């Protein structure tokens, strides 16, 4: 049948079908050979249902399933960063892609894809051809990028929601008709596809601009007329970026297809071919349904595909219950809980299902001082509620008090109802960054357990690919942009705390938070086993939440008098250094001004190699100054000046960041400093410490070590420190299998002296300390992929000499070079590296060209080692509370490879052996290291004495 007037073309977005199917079903494997087939099973069910429904309704005369050929298209050449931040397909999905094409052909549907073009371009081209031929088109997809095609006989169908999308629906979504969608997208950009757009301009603002100016070209031409300064400056500065963005979002409707519309005529499947495919896939239920439909005998002896994470399945095509249902976000439907009966009803739902998504709203990001304002709950997708508890009318009276807003339960009554559910071991509490909410509830006498954390699920699966905040995850995995918090509390000087927000607005905002969290949990939970990180999440991430929360709440005592004295000493030394620096410069200048310093060094003192940045000022970063300190022969005065500036900057940072700032971080209620640890802050699994950051207190300088004197124990107690000795070198010796290093560790030798002896052929006894220092620099540097340039800077030696050291090192320890090469090759092949404990760290830039690839390569080499060290200390921290339960002791801090405790004087000698055993055995039984782990212990009145 030739395509023409009266014909109806269906274009199915095949890639969308695949991913919906993949996330809708638990992992399924073909029993005969273990091949993953879950996505294929879901895909076949969706196609079979489509055929059944299409034949009974507005039947198509022509149809095609259109797929993406690969991620490399003409858009990648136009803008290399296009879709660069998308994670690679899951391991178990990759082998299923060709099977979905085979399934499409088994159903006798046209299967189309094209190298260099996206599926959307093929759809756009076919839609144009069909429209010009007088036919109608239905695009079966919910992809917003296809909405630019709607109109003139083309509509879309979201099959999962049974929702038809015409021009009115498009305009409701974008604020403009379909023909202007690309203009709005060009301005707003797209974080999912990494389309840059104009920074700070979202869909709503973009629509307003296009409504006023007509199109992007006119807008950019008249950008100088825009009254709002920020918008005007943004559009003038990013005009070229917007133009590129428009090219990226515009579908190519003239793709050079090698087939015609006539080739897409609908044909019935060959039942025997279809059943043969389904039989080979071991889809028993669907095979039986097809056999019944066509009156054929069902093939025998086909085993059912099974789920590797559950009991053997009786069918490979069950209903997609585990996936988040396709329920639209509707904040206006969220319930405001104002009485005990309503709250009890919601809590009963949690008791019935066994799960509850929960989120708190407070007056501050500091959990130790924040007031609880409200709690949001969700029991299913789209079913969320907000419980206001601390909202005020907003107007402070003369005494600083505010009148409570009406329609709120008494907090004590609400918490009394919440407590049994939040502590019920049979109900899973689901949160996003659950550690924050855990501490808020703990301050009200509630110990929340058990928990799941969507932020940590994302971190376990996608470390290195993107951030793990709720808003970003919602846009990436739910295709939903949450309500911005600024719409409620404002920004800058006009910003208010959440208790001043109207309850109806808070209900929509906070209810959405709980709803999003619940949907993320539904999405991520079945993905964990597919990504092979379930063990990482269950043993390294989730159990750490209450451990860290307890540590943070305990806090550490700081002697502010010691800090004040240090600040004065640092100020005096800085003043002395400023005098010396200005004398060396031959003129007074602001030592803290990089611009003035650059002019002194490069213009005034004639130091070569100065480079100016965009502002026109010379670069005077630490690396630049460190290089200048080596110019002792040619520019001795400048070398000395640079060294003194580095000393001045270190003192300045210590003073501002620690001796001054720490005094302001003392909690007025507890008299202690309560740092906050970010579990998902570093790609390798290392914890990050903030407010204040206690991870970066220098330990190599005398001044840095002195700061630890201010961290003290109360009367009758002591600070105890246990620190892993050279843990990363020990892990390197194990994973790279270096006999000499392993033997040295087993015998308890000085590893740096041994390395120097091996490299330079000198005896360990009576070794020159400088030679040992050089070996130490290489030992630690090689873990981080150090270059000759970096080693030369560290040791203040010529680069050639540094390169000779590195070459000699690899000659003596070839296994290390092999480990590095193999690790980089694996990262390039897989897109990630793994630690000994299964943690995955993605390396998205490893295959790039240019300077960035070197950074990615070094990160890939270091990540398995640093990550394994981080995993080991996490395992120790998780085991520690139970091990020291009977002692008068508590864990206060973790700083890289060190754990710090506060202990009663009588229990110091009991704690140290217990904690040491936990730390030294933390790798067991998962990994049996070929070298021993050693934890060195010390105790004292202060951290400095204990370390």
TrEMBL record:
Q: What is its EC number?
A: 2.7.7.7
Tell me the PROSITE patterns matching this sequence. Answer: DNA_POLYMERASE_A
Highest taxon, organism lineage:
Bacteria
In the record, what terms sit under GO molecular function? 3'-5' exonuclease activity; 5'-3' exonuclease activity; DNA binding; DNA-directed DNA polymerase activity
Output one GO BP term.
DNA-templated DNA replication
Ranges for region Disordered: 301-325
Domain (5'-3' exonuclease) spans 7-267
Which is an annotated Pfam family here?
A: DNA_pol_A
Keyword line: DNA damage, DNA repair, DNA replication, DNA-binding, DNA-directed DNA polymerase, Exonuclease, Hydrolase, Nuclease, Nucleotidyltransferase, Transferase
Q: Does the keyword DNA-binding apply?
A: yes
Is the keyword Ribonucleoprotein in the record?
Answer: no
InterPro entries per the record?
A: 3'-5'_exonuclease_dom, 5-3_exonucl_a-hlix_arch_N, 5-3_exonuclease, 5-3_exonuclease_C_sf, DNA-dir_DNA_pol_A_CS, DNA-dir_DNA_pol_A_palm_dom, DNA/RNA_pol_sf, DNA_polI_H3TH
Chain ranges of the DNA-directed DNA polymerase family A palm domain: 704-907
Q: Where is the composition biased (Low complexity)?
A: 301-318
CDD domains cross-referenced by the UniProt entry: DNA_pol_A_pol_I_C (cd08637), DNA_polA_I_Ecoli_like_exo (cd06139), H3TH_53EXO (cd09898), PIN_53EXO (cd09859)
Q: Which reaction does it catalyse?
A: DNA(n) + a 2'-deoxyribonucleoside 5'-triphosphate = DNA(n+1) + diphosphate
Q: Where is the 3'-5' exonuclease domain?
A: 334-529
Oligomeric and partner information: Single-chain monomer with multiple functions.
Question: Function of this protein?
Answer: In addition to polymerase activity, this DNA polymerase exhibits 3'-5' and 5'-3' exonuclease activity.
Q: Describe the family membership recorded for this protein in Swiss-Prot or TrEMBL.
A: Belongs to the DNA polymerase type-A family.
Q: What is this protein called?
A: DNA polymerase I
At the highest ranks, the source species' classification is: Bacteria, Pseudomonadati, Pseudomonadota, Alphaproteobacteria, Rhodobacterales
Q: Which gene encodes it?
A: polA
């Amino acid at each position: 049948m030739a395509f023409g007037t009266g014909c109806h073309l269906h274009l199915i977005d095949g890639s969308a079908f695949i991913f919906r199917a993949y996330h809708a079903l638990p992992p399924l494997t073909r029993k005969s050979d273990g091949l993953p087939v879950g996505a294929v099973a879901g895909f076949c069910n969706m196609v079979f249902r489509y055929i059944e429904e299409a034949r009974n309704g507005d039947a198509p005369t022509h149809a095609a399933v259109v797929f993406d050929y690969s991620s490399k298209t003409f858009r990648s050449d136009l803008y290399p960063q296009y879709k660069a931040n998308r994670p690679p397909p899951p391991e178990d999905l990759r082998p299923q892609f060709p099977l979905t094409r085979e399934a499409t052909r088994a159903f006798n549907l046209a299967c189309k894809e094209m190298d260099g073009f996206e599926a959307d371009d093929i759809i756009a081209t076919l839609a144009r051809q069909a429209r010009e031929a007088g036919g109608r088109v239905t695009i079966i997809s919910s992809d917003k990028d296809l909405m630019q095609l709607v109109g003139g006989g083309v509509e879309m169908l979201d099959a999962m929601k049974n929702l038809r999308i015409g021009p009115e629906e498009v305009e409701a979504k974008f604020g403009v008709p379909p023909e202007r969608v690309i203009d709005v997208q060009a301005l707003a950009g797209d974080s999912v596809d990494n389309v840059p757009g104009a920074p700070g301009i979202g869909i709503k603002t973009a629509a307003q601009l296009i409504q006023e100016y007509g199109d992007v070209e006119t807008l950019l031409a008249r950008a100088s007329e825009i009254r709002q300064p920020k918008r005007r400056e943004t559009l003038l500065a990013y005009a070229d970026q917007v133009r590129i963005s428009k090219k990226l979002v515009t579908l190519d409707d003239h793709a050079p297809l090698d087939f015609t519309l006539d080739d897409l005529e609908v044909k019935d499947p060959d039942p025997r071919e279809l059943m043969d495919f389904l039989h080979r896939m071991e889809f028993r239920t669907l095979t039986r349904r097809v056999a019944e439909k066509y009156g054929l005998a069902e093939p025998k002896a086909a085993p059912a595909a099974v789920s590797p994470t559950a009991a053997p399945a009786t069918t490979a095509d069950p209903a997609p219950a585990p996936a988040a249902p396709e329920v639209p976000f509707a904040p206006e439907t969220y319930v405001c809980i104002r009485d005990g009966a309503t709250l009890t009803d919601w809590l009963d739902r949690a008791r019935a299902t066994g799960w509850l998504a929960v989120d708190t709203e407070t007056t501050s990001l500091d959990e130790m001082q924040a007031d609880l304002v409200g709690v949001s709950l969700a029991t299913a997708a789209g079913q969320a509620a907000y419980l206001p508890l601390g909202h005020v009318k907003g107007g402070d009276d003369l005494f600083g008090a505010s009148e409570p807003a009406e329609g709120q339960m008494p907090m004590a009554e609400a918490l009394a109802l919440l407590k049994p559910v939040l502590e019920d071991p049979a109900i899973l509490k689901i949160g996003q960054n659950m550690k924050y909410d855990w501490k808020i509830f703990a301050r009200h006498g509630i110990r929340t357990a058990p928990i799941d954390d969507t932020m940590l699920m994302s971190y376990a699966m996608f470390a290195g690919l993107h951030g793990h905040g709720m808003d970003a995850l919602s846009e990436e995995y739910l295709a939903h942009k949450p309500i911005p918090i600024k719409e409620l509390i404002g920004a800058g000087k006009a910003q208010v705390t959440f208790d001043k927000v109207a309850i109806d607005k808070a209900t929509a905002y906070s209810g959405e938070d709980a709803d999003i969290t619940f949907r993320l949990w539904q999405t991520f939970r079945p993905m964990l086993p597919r990504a092979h990180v379930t063990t990482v999440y269950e043993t390294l991430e989730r159990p750490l939440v209450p451990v860290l929360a307890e540590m943070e709440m305990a806090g550490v005592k700081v002697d502010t008098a010691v800090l004040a004295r240090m600040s004065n000493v640092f100020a005096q030394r800085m003043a002395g250094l400023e005098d010396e620096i200005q004398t060396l410069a031959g003129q007074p200048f602001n030592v803290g001004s990089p611009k003035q310093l650059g002019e002194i060094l490069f213009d005034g003192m004639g130091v070569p190699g100065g480079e100016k940045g965009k502002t026109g000022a010379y670069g005077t970063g630490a690396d630049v100054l460190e290089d200048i300190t080596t110019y002792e022969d040619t520019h001795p005065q400048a070398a000395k000046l640079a060294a003194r500036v580095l000393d001045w900057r270190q003192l300045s940072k210590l003073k501002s960041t620690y001796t001054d700032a720490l005094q302001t971080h003392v909690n007025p209620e507890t008299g202690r400093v309560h740092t906050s640890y970010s579990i998902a802050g570093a790609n390798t699994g290392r914890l990050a410490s903030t407010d204040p950051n206690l991870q970066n207190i220098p330990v190599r300088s005398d001044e840095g070590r002195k700061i630890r004197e201010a961290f003290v124990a109360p009367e009758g107690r002591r600070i105890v420190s246990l620190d892993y000795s050279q843990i990363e070198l020990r892990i390197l010796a194990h994973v790279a299998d270096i006999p000499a290093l392993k033997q040295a560790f087993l015998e308890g030798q000085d590893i740096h002296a041994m390395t120097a002896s091996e490299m330079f052929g000198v005896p360990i006894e009576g070794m020159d300390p400088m030679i040992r220092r050089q070996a130490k620099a290489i030992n630690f540097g090689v873990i981080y992929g150090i270059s000759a340039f970096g080693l030369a800077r560290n040791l203040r030696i010529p680069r050639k000499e540094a390169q000779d050291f590195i070459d000699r090192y690899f000659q003596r320890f070839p296994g290390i070079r092999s480990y590095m090469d193999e690790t980089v090759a694996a990262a390039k092949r897989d897109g990630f590296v793994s630690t000994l404990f299964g943690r995955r760290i993605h390396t998205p830039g490893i295959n790039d060209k240019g300077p960035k690839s070197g950074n990615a390569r070094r990160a890939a080499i270091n990540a398995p080692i640093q990550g394994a060290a981080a995993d080991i200390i996490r395992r120790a921290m998780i085991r520690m509370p139970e091990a020291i339960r009977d002692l008068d002791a508590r864990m206060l801090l973790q700083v890289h490879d060190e754990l710090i405790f506060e202990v009663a004087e009588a229990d110091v000698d009991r704690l140290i052996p217990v904690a040491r055993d936990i730390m030294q055995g933390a790798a067991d039984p998962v990994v049996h290291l070929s070298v021993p782990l050693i934890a060195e212990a010390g105790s004292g009145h202060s951290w400095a004495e204990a370390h």
